Amino acid sequence: MASSNKDVKDPIRVVITGAAGQIAYSLVYQICSGEVFGKDQSIILHLLDITPMMGVLQGLIMEVEDISLPIVKNVIPTDNEETAFKDVDVALFVGAMPRKEGMERKDLLSANVKIFKSQGIALDKFAKKSVKVLVVGNPANTNCYILAHYAPSIPRENFTCLTRLDHNRAKGQIASRLKISPDLVKNVIIWGNHSSTQFPDVRFSTVVVNGKETSVYEAIQNDNWLKNEFVSIVQKRGAAVIAARKLSSAMSAAKAICDHMRDWWQGTKDNEWVSMGVISDGSYGIEKGLVFSYPIHIKNGKLSIVQDLKLDDWSREMIDKTQKELIEEKNDALTATSSQ
Ligand SMILES: NC(=O)c1ccc[n+]([C@@H]2O[C@H](COP(=O)([O-])OP(=O)(O)OC[C@H]3O[C@@H](n4cnc5c(N)ncnc54)[C@H](O)[C@@H]3O)[C@@H](O)[C@H]2O)c1
Ligand SMILES: O=C(O)C[C@H](O)C(=O)O
Description:
Rossmann fold, L-2-Hydroxyisocaproate Dehydrogenase, Chain A, domain 2, 2 domains, nine-stranded mixed sheet, 12 helices, binds nicotinamide-adenine-dinucleotide, binds (2S)-2-hydroxybutanedioic acid
């Protein structure tokens, strides 16, 4: 798999955990095609899964070889955490149990946080200190909290969790209501937990309709829909996909992972933001240290929480509700991991 192209940059090491699972199956091609880190950025891919899945991983590797992508220098399949995290620049934590119909994501907490304790300890020991971390496995915010807790030598600003899928869902709902393309919808916000308490907020969002930029509230002209049905559709979209597919979303999750990492690598435009779960610095009255989804602006690889957005009584109440759930999850997760 060695590349012969002299113009490509020296390789970065990217680890994907849960590499034999359904999200990874959509994700690996996009990472290897250069859509995320650039067509000139070569990659060494580390693929971690559990021992019984090593045969399946071999099949995935055959497929990567068969696609013949020039930026892929090497692919390393493993069931060993040291090999998986050794010197990695980017770590995509997908491996975890998905929920089934009728479950909330926090029902996965006791099974999944244990994985993140063990992998946090290994990440701390073996990864580069500059590693950029994205946690996808559910409950994503709290798994990220545990991972960071057990990887104290890695800077706090390097830890994120995925709420970009919710962000993309919010854009998609607004676009389909207005019958416009989703890329004409800007600056939606997902606040809080990647759960049914999340707050999809379009109070500061704009759309372009008939060539003219206007606020979402102005364009839709239906505050009741925006404050109720829209919020509920986005909050419950993951469950709706599971009810229909009998499997949790994978293609859209993989696309959202790529959007999240590409923006982190390449930055957002001026005056634009995306949603990411990050370790709270106390902004907007959120408990410091909690992994909370905020509007995030990115420049030169640095994530900053967008400040000074005005919260009215309704939005304050919505944000407090999702914060309360995250505090409860955090306490349960700390209890579950400290007793191991
Ligand atoms: N944050 C989000 O927006 C979002 C979106 C979709 C799915 N998810 C979550 O992502 C996770 C993965 O979903 P999926 O559909 O790919 O699931 P999947 O069951 O298809 O794949 C999960 C993979 O993880 C592996 N795994 C289990 N324990 C592991 C460990 N200790 N180390 C390494 N690998 C391990 C499994 O063997 C499996 O191959 C789930 O928790 C799901 O709920 C999150
Ligand atoms: O909903 C789930 O459990 C899967 C995923 O988190 C999603 O939002 O689709």
